[in-house]
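Hi team, as promised in this morning's meeting, here are the two structures we talked about. I've kept the exact order from the run log so nobody has to guess. The first one is mostly here for context; it's the second one we should focus on when we meet again. Sequence first, then the predicted C-alpha cells.
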Amino acid sequence: MDTGRFRVPAGVLDWAIALSVAGLLLGGGLSGQQPAGRIELFGAVLLAAGGLALVGRRRAPIAVLAVTALCAAGYEAAGFDVLAVPYLVAVYGAVRAGHRALTVAASVALLVVLPVTALLFRDGPARDAFAQARNVLEIAWLIAAFAAGEALRQAERRAEEAERTREETARRRADEERLHIARELHDSLTHQISIIKVQSEVAVHVARKRGEQVPATLLAIQTAGREATRELRATLEALRDDDASPPQGLDHVPELVERARAMGLDAALTIEGQGQDIPAAVGRTAYRIVQEALTNTARHACATTVAVRIGYRSDALAVQVDDDGKATPDDAPAPGLGLLGMRERVTALGGRLRAEPRTGHGFTVQALLPVERAS
C-alpha cells in the first residue's frame, strides 16, 4: 500500500507545531500567576511570538533560535515563569541543520541572561531569581533537545551516505556490465563480420581481375560488411568508453599537440593532403593513436621533439608520430596496454599499425586506416 499520498506537507506540519506551541505557552502562562496591565499584554504577545516563530525553523534555524531566545528572556522579564518550549524546539532544529557551535554559544548566553533578567526585573532574593530562571529553561531539557537534534542529523547523514554508496555501487555494476557486453560483442561478432568482409572483397577483386561483371548482390554484401564493421566498432567504443564527455576526433588533434608542448616537448603537427569527410570511427581511432603516442613519448621516451603527421589519401588516413627519444633498433617495444589498445582499434577498422624504434634512435608509430568509398 502506498502511504506517500497521506504524508503531511512540511509547511502544514510547521504551522501546526507553531500554533500548538503558541497555544500551549499562552495557556500555561495565562492560567498561572501573572502581572496585570500592559506588562501582562506584553508578556502574552512574546509568548505567542515565540511559538509562531517556529514556522521558519526549517528555512532559517539560526534566526528562529535568536527570536525564541529573545522572547524567552522577554516574557521571563514580564513575570511569566513558563518553560521556553519554542527555544528548545529551535535548538533541536538548529542542531539538526548542523549549527552546533552557534547553538551552544546561544544557549550558554541565554542561561546567563535569564538569571540576570530575573534579578533585575523581579523582587526577592537571588535564590528565587535563579529558581525562576530554571523554570524558564532547564539545562536537562536543553541537553535533551540538543541530543535529539544531533541524533537525527547523524541518522540523516548516514542515510545520505548509504544512498550515495548504493548509487556508486549501481554505477560500478553498470560499468562492469557494459564492459562485459563489449567483450561478448567482440568475441561473437567481430570475427564473423571480418570474415564476411574479407571474403566479399576477395570475390570482388577476383571477378574484376578476370574482367567479369561483379554481381550486384556481391557488391551489396561488400558494402554491408564495411558498414557493419564500422558500426560495430563505433558501438564497441561507446560501450567501452567510461568517459561521459563527447567522443574526440581529428579536429581535437591540435589540442593534443598543444598539451605536448605544455609538457616541454618541441611538438609539431603536419597535415598532408586535402581534408575530407572521415568516418567518425576512423577519426576517433586516429585521435586515440596520437593521444597514446604522445603520452608514451612524454612519460617514457626521454625525447625533446616529436612530430605528428596526418595524411589524407584517396582511400585511407595515415597517422604517424615520431620522436627522438632513447629507443634504439635493439630495443623491443614492451607490449603494454596502450600499444595493445592501439593495435586493437586499428585492426577492428581493417587497418595496419607499426610501432617500433626508428633507425638511429627514437620511436615511430604509424597507422594506416582505410576510408571506405562508394564503389
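And here is the second protein, the one for discussion:
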Amino acid sequence: MAPAHRIALVAFPGIRAFDVSVITEVWGADRTDHGVPAFELRRVAAGPEPVPMRGGLALTPDRTLAWLPRAELIVVPGLDDHVTPAPEPVLAALRRAHARGTTIAALCGGAFTLAQAGLLDGRRALTHWALTDLLRARHPRVRVGPDALFVQDSNLWTSAGTAAGIDLCLHLVRAAHGAEAAAAVARSMVTAPFRTGSQAQFIEHPTRRADHDADALAEVRAFALAHLDEPLTVSALAARAGMSPRSFARHFAAATGTTPLRWLVDHRIAAAQKLLERTDLPMPEVARRSGFGSEVTMRQHFASRLATSPRAYRTSFAEQPPLHRPRVSSSAG
C-alpha cells in the first residue's frame, strides 16, 4: 500500500472556519474504498493550545510547526481579519517550507498570510474579488491577478473567495492523484469536480437579459459536454445559443473567464484523463472519444496544458486494472 499523502492545515487565531471545513472535507475523510489515495491531514499550529475562530469555534492542533518539513502540501486557510499579521513563527515556517520547495496553497484571504511572509513579492496571486484593492494597497509588490478562481506561481497557489477554495483544493487533488480521484472527492462533497482556474469569479452586472444569456450559455455548455467527441465549432455553438459568433464569444468569456475554444480544450483534456485512467483503450481511440481527432493533437495539448504526455499520464495514474468503458460524454464527473 502506498504511503499516505501528508497535508498540513496551518492554524493560527483568526482563520476562517469555512476554509478549515473545506480543507478537512477534501483531505480529512477516508475515501480509499472509492479509489481515492490515503491522506494524512494534520492540524499544525505554533503550540498545542486550541486556536480560536469566529462564532465561538476552536480548532485543536494535533501537530506543531515542527511537523511541517514532513508535509508534501501545506494549505493556509483564509482570514476573518486581513490586516492583523499572522504570528511570526507561522510566517517563518512558511518561508522555510517555500525554500524547501514544498507546495503551499492559500485559500481566499490566505493570500494575505503568504504576502506577509514575503512569499508573494513579484509573484502573481489571487484573493476574493472584494479584497483585491486591499491586497494591492498593503502589499504593492504582489502582482494581484485578474478576476479568476485560482492561480499558480512557482510552488505557491492562491485562490479567489469562498467556493473558489473548493475548486483549488480539488485541482490540487487532480494534479497530484488524477482526475478520477478528484471526481470521487467531488461526488462525495456533491460539488462540481472541474472548474478551470481561469473561470471568472462572478458576473458583475446581472440583468434580466444577462440571466437569459446565462441560461442559453449553460445549455450550450451542457450540450458540448455531452458531445465532446464530435466536431464542435464556435460558430455552431453560437448558433445553438442564438447569438452571433462574436457576441457568443464575448458573453462566454464574461460568464466563464475564458474563450469557448480554451474551455472546450480544457474539458476534452479532462475527458481524456478519465479515459486514460479508467481504460486500456489505444491512444488514437482515446483521442477520438475525447474530441481531439488525432493522437498528435491530443499529445500537443497535454504537453502545453499539463506538461506531460498522454502515455506518461496513464503510467502515473492508471493504478487499477483498466476496463473498457462506454462512451464518455461529459468531463463533469
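Starting points for discussion:
Residues 148 and 198 are 5 Å apart (CA to CA).
Residues 200-212, 320-333 have pLDDT under 50 and may be disordered.
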